[in-house]
Design goal:
- The structure holds two protein chains of two kinds.
- Chain A has three helices and ten strands.
- Chain A is an alpha+beta fold.
- In chain A, the strands form three sheets. In chain A, strands 8-7-6-9-10 form a five-stranded antiparallel beta sheet, with no helix packed on it. A three-stranded antiparallel beta sheet of chain A has the order 2-1-5, covered by helices on one side. A two-stranded antiparallel sheet of chain A has the order 3-4.
- Chain A starts with a helix and ends with a strand.
- Chain B is about 35% helix and about 20% strand.
- Chain B starts with a strand and ends with a strand.
- Classes of the chains: A alpha+beta, B alpha/beta.
- The complex binds zinc ion (ZN).
- Zinc ion (ZN) binds near residues 61 and 64 of chain A.
């Protein structure tokens, strides 16, 4: 149904009215800054990434080897028991090919799409892994179940962050 | 319908100015483990989980999602209240009263040390069109209120400072309080002005901590606890947010929240029936304003009572024996939880050196802080 503007008493403005100062507008950039204390589990995880290793925590009750590591098992409701190193290889659980950036702006023409994927890490329990991105791969070649390996930053460039792994890339075999 | 709801288990961390060794996950986990252990339950026994969190304060959108793991609430009925813990407690009580949920867990957390721009966050609570463009600190709201309160001769400046002296001294006997101190009236009056007449020591400093409580039905209470504390009444209320036409002297919403809780608890004469109170004291004068709103003192009398020691431990109505926000720390959404926690400890006779003798009815009151008018009240008994 078409609404009658006159009947509603509404006034329609074009975007240019804002620029011309015909509409009151207020713009203020909020300064909202947070820190996130990592705690022992994620703290150790990031320290190990800096060394080029991936570490998990094991729950001796359900026997899950969990990454990202956690100090308690959310399913068994008990503290986890031990640190376990896992491999930096795994397989793609699921992926998506993204043509927009994090802020929903469209990627530039000719730029490669973003390739987020969940990697089930070898040595961790089934279904547990790392959310990261894929690299050195053509988007159309990506398959669920594909074997991948971490491509690490150079040791001197690592800073104890998830981005110490640049991306996961396909491995043969 | 069921009439009584029990608090059958409590768990809490220490309240500290920082907590760098733990993420918010480990803080809540610590409190939850203790609470479940006390009640002899496991997460699988819980019918409903109620968390208290506000995205703006946590630094997560939909912070609800980040509450479950550390409570054992994964894939269980869980919800989040963006208010004070006492609002969550009221919801938890209602869940039990429906008779569809026998055991309900209520949680609140403060990780204030991770909020790096608290004044800016608080400023974001002001009206964006009418107030924020003036570029004035939101603490002005406390100054405006206190000035009016003093001008109406509801208290003297010294009586407000006496609240700080009392609460910080009380906190020295509370092993989990962050800001216990021996200060004098002059220390308070001579501290840096923030938004006159509010000075630095009039303001509760921020703290981290987590509280988890297990609620259950009257029928289940004996099997979960040998010393249940009962929630007899809850109430909550909020005024209009407008700073242009609000009531500046009296905390009307607190009065209404209190009256609602008194009615539910069957309390006709609060000043006689309440044995101890933990009220919001985020700014010194608020303790006095809130005590009067709650009918625990006549208008203009709470300040004098504080000066005379009647609200001190051993007085006729001990107020904020725990140290309150001024002594324990301002815990944001967890503030009311610390107050209810103190009542539970007192009503069980487990408050150690600060135990109030013969306490059988306690009142806890929360205020959502500057610049809000939102209030919640809980009345507990043993
Ligand atoms: Zn487990």
């Amino acid at each position: 149904m078409e609404l009658d503007k006159k009947e509603l008493g509404a006034t329609h403005y074009k975007e240019s009215a804002l620029k011309e100062g015909k509409l009151l507008s207020l713009a203020k950039q909020p300064k909202l800054q947070y820190a996130w204390d990592n705690g022992p589990a994620i703290g150790r995880y990031l320290e190990e990434l800096k060394e080029g290793r991936i570490i998990a925590r094991k729950c001796n009750k359900c026997r899950r080897i969990m990454i990202p590591p956690r100090m308690f098992c959310e399913l068994c409701w008990r503290p986890t028991d031990e640190w376990v190193y896992v491999k930096d290889t795994g397989k793609v659980n699921t992926f998506s090919i993204c043509y927009v950036n994090w802020d929903a702006s469209r990627i530039k023409k000719g730029d490669k799409p973003h390739l987020p994927a969940v990697i089930e890490i070898d040595g961790a329990s089934e279904g547990m892994g790392i959310l990261h991105v894929l690299g050195e791969v053509e988007p159309e070649k990506i398959k669920i179940g594909m074997k991948v390996k971490a491509a690490w930053k150079k040791p001197e460039e690592r800073e104890g962050a998830i981005t110490d792994i640049l991306y996961f890339k396909p491995v043969r075999g | 319908m069921r009439e009584k709801v029990a608090i059958a288990g409590i768990g809490y961390t220490a309240f500290t100015s920082v907590s760098p060794g733990s993420s918010y996950r480990e803080l809540t986990y610590e409190a939850a483990v203790k609470a479940y252990d006390e009640a002899g339950i496991e997460p699988k026994d819980v019918d409903s989980f109620i968390c208290t969190s506000e995205d703006f304060l946590e630094g997560y959108s939909i912070s609800d999602e980040y509450c479950n793991d550390q409570l054992g609430a994964v894939l269980k009925p869980a919800q989040t209240i963006p208010g004070d813990f006492i609002h969550s407690l009221a919801v938890g009580m209602m869940h039990v009263l429906t008779e569809r949920f026998d055991i309900v867990v209520v949680q609140a957390l403060s990780k204030a040390s991770n909020m790096k721009t608290i004044p800016e966050m608080i400023n974001f609570a002001l009206d964006p069109v009418l107030n924020r463009p003036l570029d004035i600190t939101a603490y002005m709201v406390a100054g405006l209120e206190m000035n009016r309160f003093l001008a109406e001769e509801r208290a003297t400046r010294k009586q407000c400072a006496a609240v700080v002296v009392k609460n910080k001294a009380n906190a020295l006997l509370n092993p989990v309080a962050a800001y216990g101190a021996r200060v004098s009236i002059d220390h308070v009056l001579d501290s840096e002005p923030i938004a006159e007449p509010v000075c630095l020591l009039d303001v509760a400093p921020y703290a981290d901590g987590a509280v988890v409580m297990v609620l259950c039905s009257e029928k289940l209470a004996p099997s979960l606890s040998d010393r249940p504390v009962w929630i007899n009444g809850v109430g909550w209320s909020s005024d209009s947010p407008t700073l242009e036409s609000r009531e500046w002297t009296d905390a009307v919403a607190v009065r209404l929240a209190g009256d609602m809780a008194y009615k539910m608890a069957g309390i006709a004469c609060p000043a006689k029936d309440v044995d101890l109170a933990e009220v919001n004291d985020e700014i010194s004068f608020k303790e006095l304003q809130h005590l009067e709103a709650l009918r625990l003192f006549d208008p203009g009398q709470a300040g004098k009572a504080t000066e005379d020691g009647r609200t001190s431990p051993g007085g006729t109505l001990p107020v904020n024996v725990s140290g309150g926000g001024l002594g324990v720390g301002h815990l944001f959404e967890c503030s009311g939880a610390q107050k209810v926690l103190e009542l539970v400890l007192q009503l069980r006779g487990e408050a150690g050196e600060r135990q109030v003798s013969d306490a059988s009815v306690g009142l806890a009151q929360a205020w959502r802080g500057i610049p809000s008018t939102s209030a919640a009240v809980a009345i507990l008994s043993n």
